[in-house]
Automatic annotation (TrEMBL):
This is LysR family transcriptional regulator. It comes from the Bacteria. The keyword DNA-binding applies. Residues 3-60 form the HTH lysR-type domain. Keywords: DNA-binding, Transcription, Transcription regulation. PANTHER family: HCA OPERON TRANSCRIPTIONAL ACTIVATOR HCAR (PTHR30346:SF0), TRANSCRIPTIONAL DUAL REGULATOR HCAR-RELATED (PTHR30346). The keyword Transcription regulation applies. Belongs to the LysR transcriptional regulatory family. InterPro entries: LysR_HTH_N, LysR_subst-bd, WH-like_DNA-bd_sf, WH_DNA-bd_sf. The lineage of its organism: Bacteria, Bacillati, Actinomycetota, Actinomycetes, Kitasatosporales. It comes from Actinacidiphila acididurans. It holds the Pfam family HTH_1.
Length: 302
């Protein structure tokens, strides 16, 4: 029996809330209707998805498995609707997402030479929307930085690049040509995700400011609330008068990858992958060239 996507959306709402009443309110349907739909889904699957008792609602093992699989499935269905809508308008368009500092133009130009009839749009993405935007079709291809949840994605490594420390201009180490991890041990860290994703082998205390993008990171560091780390290419394209970038040679490098939804099959996407891989060396060197243009090492003021 085919899986009913509407019932699946209802299930996800209940699984998120672990409360039928709140889930019904979120879905704008009556609670008895929601309960019937969940029972029907359980019958379709031949498995109980929730336990219900006086202590509340909890997922069964089958429910936890379905919840893990539901996100990519619903995102894929949304992506199909989006692509069909674009095709119906007669557009030939490829949307390429990219993280801060990653040049897209070398691959786009190589791709457009083979596909002059396809418009390449570019869209900036952040660490927390890399996977969702690929899965739901808002972008067709993404230049991503690890870590990323690879569920439902094909992720292909392109190159690595060094990282730099982001320091307030008045920091005691701001004038150094380079620093080590040990030099920065114990410094509060302005970071965008959980501590397990920190690139250093020496965990830093969280500064208490979770950020999404480079601009926010620079503002917090400039205010003296902590230090941070960036890929060297990101430090090329972003500056701040109260921030200094200093190389950290022994810090784990940043891994840049190309990613696409596993359900996305398209000769056009395949050709962009080929162009991206062929121009990866040029892309990786763009940051180095820009740094040389600025007059030397990556530590700079403003």
């Amino acid at each position: 029996m085919d899986l009913d996507l509407r019932k699946l959306r209802y299930f996800v709402a209940v699984a998120d809330q672990l409360h039928f009443g709140r889930a019904a309110d979120e879905l704008h349907i009556a609670q008895p209707v929601l309960s019937r739909q969940i029972r029907a889904l359980e019958q379709d699957l031949g498995a109980s998805l929730f336990t219900r008792d006086r202590h509340g609602v909890a997922l069964t093992d089958a429910g936890r498995q379905l919840l893990a699989d539901a996100g990519p499935l619903l995102a894929s269905a949304h992506a199909v609707r989006r692509r069909v809508s674009v095709a119906a308008r007669g557009n030939r368009r490829l949307v390429v997402g990219f993280r801060a500092g990653i040049p897209v133009i070398p691959a786009a130009q190589a791709f457009e030479a083979r596909h002059p009839d396809v418009v390449v749009d570019v869209q900036r993405i952040e660490w927390d929307d890399q996977a969702p935007m690929l899965l739901d079709g808002r972008i067709d291809v993404g230049y991503v930085r690890l870590p990323i949840d690879e569920t439902g994605l094909h992720v292909t490594p392109l190159y690595t690049e060094p990282r730099v420390a982001v320091l307030p201009a008045g920091h005691p180490l701001a004038g150094k040509e380079e620093v080590t991890e040990a030099d920065l041990a114990g410094e509060p860290l302005v970071w965008h995700a959980d501590p397990s994703t920190q690139p250093t082998r020496r965990p830093h205390p969280n500064a208490g400011y979770l950020v999404r993008g480079v601009d926010e990171t620079l503002e917090h560091v400039a205010a003296g609330r902590g230090i941070s780390f960036l890929a060297r290419s990101a430090s090329v394209f972003y500056s701040h008068p109260d921030v200094i970038y200093v190389p950290v040679p022994d810090l784990a490098p940043d891994q840049v990858c190309l990613a696409v939804a596993a359900s996305r099959t398209s000769p056009v996407v395949d050709d962009f992958f080929t162009a991206a891989q062929a121009t990866a060396e040029i892309t990786a060197e763009c940051g180095n060239y820009e740094m040389w243009q600025l007059g030397g090492p990556v530590s700079k003021h403003g």
